[in-house]
C-alpha cells in the first residue's frame, strides 16, 4: 500500500493552487453551479444547454475562452437562423435534413473562413429536425436555443475573467522568453562546434525543434491574446519581438548549416578568443533579453556585447591583413563568411533591441570575409 501511494505522489504534484488543471477544474465547477442556481428559480432546471456551454467555454486562458465563445455564439446564431428557415420552408423530413445541412455549411463557408463556426452552425441546425411540428415552433426553438447558449457563455466568461484569470498575452511572453533562452543555449553549442569541434553537449537538432515548438506556442497564444481586453498595444509589441526571435532562430539555422560544412583547418587560432568572448556576451544578452520580456521590462543593451563585437571586428580585420584564408576554396570561404555574418547579425539585433530589418541573413555588399561593422541604434546595418 505504501509503495502504491509513493508511486501516485509524483502524479499528484500538479495539485496546487497555481496549477492549471486545478484552477480550470474549480472554475468549470463554479460556472456549472452558477448556471444551475439561476435556472432553478426560473423553472428551467431541465434545460441543460446553458450548463454545457458554460462548462465548454472555460479554456486554459481568457483569450482562448473568448475565441471559443465567439465561435460558439456566431455558430449558434447562424445555425439557429438557417435551421429555422430550412424547417419552415421544407419541413422536418429526412431529405430536407441533408439539404438544410448542405446549405448551412455552404453559406457559412462563404461568409467566414473559420471552419469551427460552420461546424457549430451545422450541429445547431440538426436539432431543428426534432422540434415539435407547428408554425412557430422552429422560431421559438431558435430564440430559446440562442438565449440558452448566450447565457451559458456569459456565465463562463465572467467566471473565467474574475476567478484566477489567466491571460494569453502573459503566457505568450513566457513562450517568447523560453524561445530566447533556448536560442542562447543553441547559439553556445553551435559556436563551440565551430571553434572547438563537435562535442557531447545538447544536440543542435533537438534544440532547434524545441525552439520551433516554443515559437509555435507563442504564435498560438498571441492569436488568442488579441481578443483580450486592452491587449492591442501589448500584442503589437510582443508580436514584433516574436518575429525578431524567429529571425534569430533562422539566422542560427543558417549558422549551424555552414558550421557543419566548414573544414577544421578554417578555425583561426588567433581569432578564437575574440569569437569566444562574442559568443559568451551574445548568449548572456539573449538570456537577459528573455528575463526582460518575462518581467515586462525594456530590453537591455549590454555594453559588453558592443565591446565584444568591436573586438571580433578587429580580429577579422587582422585575419584579412594576414591573408589567413587565401589558400582556401571559394565555397569554404562562403560558409565561413556565413558563420561570421550570422554571429554579427545576432549581436547587432541584440544591440538594436531586437529591431530587425527586412534583410536576408546573407545580404550585404561586403567582400567574402569582409570587415563586419557595429550597428548602434539609429544607424543602418550596411554602414561601414
From TrEMBL:
Coiled-coil zones: none
Transmembrane regions listed in the UniProt entry: 73-95, 101-131, 143-164
Example of a GO cellular component annotation carried by this entry: plasma membrane
InterPro entries (UniProt xref): PHBA_efflux_AaeB/fusaric-R
One Gene Ontology term of the molecular function aspect: transmembrane transporter activity
Signal peptide: none
Primary localization: membrane
Lipid bilayer topology: Multi-pass membrane protein
Protein name, UniProt field: Multidrug efflux system protein MdtO
